[in-house]
Amino acid sequence: xxxxxxxxxxxxxxxxxxxxxxxxxxxxxxxxxxxxxxxxxxxxxxxxxxxxxxxxxxxxxxxxxxxxxxxxxxxxxxxxxxxxxxxxxxxxxxxxxxxxxxxxxxxxxxxxxxxxxxxxxxxxxxxxxxxxxxxxxxxxxxxxxxxxxxxxxxxxxxxxxxxxxxxxxxxxxxxxxxxxxxxxxxxxxxxxxxxxxxxxxxxxxxxxxxxxxxxxxxxxxxxxxxxxxxxxxxxxxxxxxxxxxxxxxxxxxxxxxxxxxxxxxxxxxxxxxxxxxxxxxxxxxxxxxxxxxxxxxxxxxxxxxxxxxxxxxxxxxxxxxxxxxxxxxxxxxxxxxxxxxxxxxxxxxxxxxxxxxxxxxxxxxxxxxxxxxxxxxxxxxxxxxxxxxxxxxxxxxxxxxxxxxxxxxxxxxxxxxxxxxxxxxxxxxxxx
Length: 432
Description:
The protein is an alpha/beta fold. It folds into 2 domains: 2-324, ANL, N-terminal domain (Rossmann fold, 3-Layer(aba) Sandwich), CATH 3.40.50; 328-423, Alpha-Beta Plaits. The protein has helices at 2-6, 8-26, 30-49, 71-76, 78-81, 88-97, 123-137, 179-189, 198-207, 225-235, 344-352, 381-397, and strands at residues 104-108, 118-122, 146-152, 168-174, 193-196, 215-218, 240-245, 248-253, 259-261, 266-272, 279-285, 296-297, 300-304, 317-324, 329-332, 339-342, 362-367, 370-376, 403-409, 421-423. It has a 9-stranded mixed beta sheet with strand order 4-3-5-6-7-8-9-14-13, with helices on both faces. Helix 2 runs parallel beside helix 7 (123-137), helix 9 packs across helix 10 (225-235) and helix 11 (344-352) runs antiparallel to helix 12 (381-397).
């Protein structure tokens, strides 16, 4: 019995992996997906959700009857959303000390906007997470071994669970040390699978020619088309995607490269964003038992795929993860009072489409009517002028004429998330 209990987390991993692979075959229609979700959500609401302090005084019989929450509320009342009894102050103390509470894993987001998020899960839940990930990304596991290089700016013991299996070797590389510093170690590790932000995959594609991975996955930040092109041309393979956040695993790409929502473990409400073809997700992770993620509003912007995927999956597909709602520029309307919102993808496309030599940039809203455009110092003055002209024309076409300051300089890679379009100014009452 003791031997069985000692290896219980591995059994949790195996069960989650097997369930993920089984559902990939059994869920053939939207009705199948919705029926599966309904059964699991009903059990989850009666159990974990109903026993959590925040939801004791809410009607937890139906998901739609629960209030929509966001990061600010969850972080302010952290102890009411988790059954571990951890306040945010206690959770931060555990996380920063590196001494985890027995049986639990406490982690945090990178907090690129200055608003870091916490999560707490049990050891069993982290193995369930790993089983789902392996089921979606490495369907040949465990018959096929894998050496995975995970390159991220923040390590948690969540990732260490992978090395409890003999068929899987996962090595974490700390991006805070800089890509150039860790690149030789990545090469020495000789991974067959690399999971990293697109800026890292692109740097490796442009600077190292000895890596020969079998699988590549972009994760942790927005994948821009210009980065995808450079990475895929170098490695001569399709670049996969993982859409993941502090709140959990949200989507993975199929063999055809289409990003599918992880609707076998997460329920999504896709709320339309006014005056755009984008949506913003409200998620409910019905596998989470310790920290409840129920009707949690993300600040991400997604463009959904309107036609089917050749893989035949009934899981809804994402054409593109655009970025964050707090990076939507808000500029004064030239014709009078009011604000013109403009999403990151529209700004990005205007700059990149202006000249083929431009493959990197930074555009920052620094004040209510001031933008800063930074371009690499390697491009020509004519290309820089073309980018500025294209940006001005775009903005004028939507009735706004902000001041644009242009400069050419070396663009370094940030150790946290790369945000090519970034809003650093917020008007009173706007989202942050």
